[in-house]
Amino acid sequence: MIRVLNNRILITDEYVRGYQPPYPDRVNNVYVYGTRLTNGVMVAAFSRPIYSYEQPYDANLVGCTPWKFMVGLNRMDINGHAHHHSVTPIHQVVCLNNLVVYSAPCSFTYDNHRVKQRVTYGVKNGTLSFRFVLTGIKSGTTGWTGIGFGSSMHSGIDTIMLRLWNDQIFITDEYVKGHKSPSPDKVNNVRVYSTRVADGVMVAAFSRSVHSYEQPYDASLVKCSPWKFIIGLNRMSRNRHARHHSVTPIHRIVCLDNCMV
Fold first, then answer.
1. Rounded mean pLDDT of 133-150?
2. What value does the mean pLDDT take over residues 232-253?
3. Do 129 and 242 fall into the same domain?
4. Which of the listed residues 98, 125, 143 is the one where a domain comes to its end?
């Protein structure tokens, strides 16, 4: 679903059955690259896997499948609930095997006015490279953020931890299981290229292998795997032990075959 509300474009992964408004999926598998609304023109770039990970809510798009293209902007209420479309959607059978897809880096973006965060990532020769940008940081702020790989805390999460301390960024390869603070891996498989904190912006470039060399502490990221994006900076102790995140991490199924560079 693509909604225009207060001059902003909101893109969500939803499901509808019968004559009811659509409602969001439990797992949002839509990745938004960018949106723009200027001079009466609305532009949006986004993607989703062709496979189904949350049946029946995600359709499998392998081979030839029926699509429905909504026409124009349709009415919705003040809460953003969609009303019935004013123009009959255009039905087409789409065969994705006939499309040529050019690989490019993938990205995750979060923006709620107070926190603006963007993670760009891509794979080359088995190495997964990241560029992490977080804005809106006040001078003297300390805290932690990062990216987790795994389904849940109960089964264990392989985590790349980013800590901001005394205007320096520390990046480590860690693991957490259960409701404990993450602990460093015996073998650090994260390579740091550069870090910078200036003018309220935190930037870091780093990489790790897509393969697992230290099980169960390193998650294999080959093909499609569950990721968790930590939002903003979260509290930590004076010893730099991470405390519980203040915002629920955003879960994504990431298919790195779509992120080759």
1. 93
2. 88
3. yes
4. 98
Whether the model clears a pTM of 0.70, i.e. scores above it, the answer is no
pLDDT band at residue 261 using 50, 70 and 90 as cut-offs: confident
Pair (59, 110) in one structural domain: no
User: Same domain, yes or no, for 119 and 231?
Assistant: yes
What DSSP letter does each residue of 114-179 carry, written as one string? S-EEEEEEEEETTEEEEEEEEE-PPTT--EEEEEEESS-TTT-EEEEEEEEETTEEEEEEEEE-SS
Residues 59, 26: contact at Cβ < 8 Å? no
- 72 pLDDT above the threshold of 90: yes
Q: How far is CA 241 from CA 135, 165, 227, in A?
A: 23, 12, 22
Would you call 96 helix, strand, or coil by DSSP?
Answer: helix
As given in the structure block, the two tokens for residue 126 are 């088995």
The torsion of the CA quartet 23, 27, 33, 34, rounded to 10 degrees, works out to 30
Phi-psi label, residue 254: left if phi above 0, alpha if psi -120 to 50, beta otherwise: beta
Whole-number pLDDT of residue 103: 63
Among residues 106, 104, 112, which one has the least CA distance to residue 134? Answer: 112
User: How high is the pLDDT of residue 26?
Assistant: 80
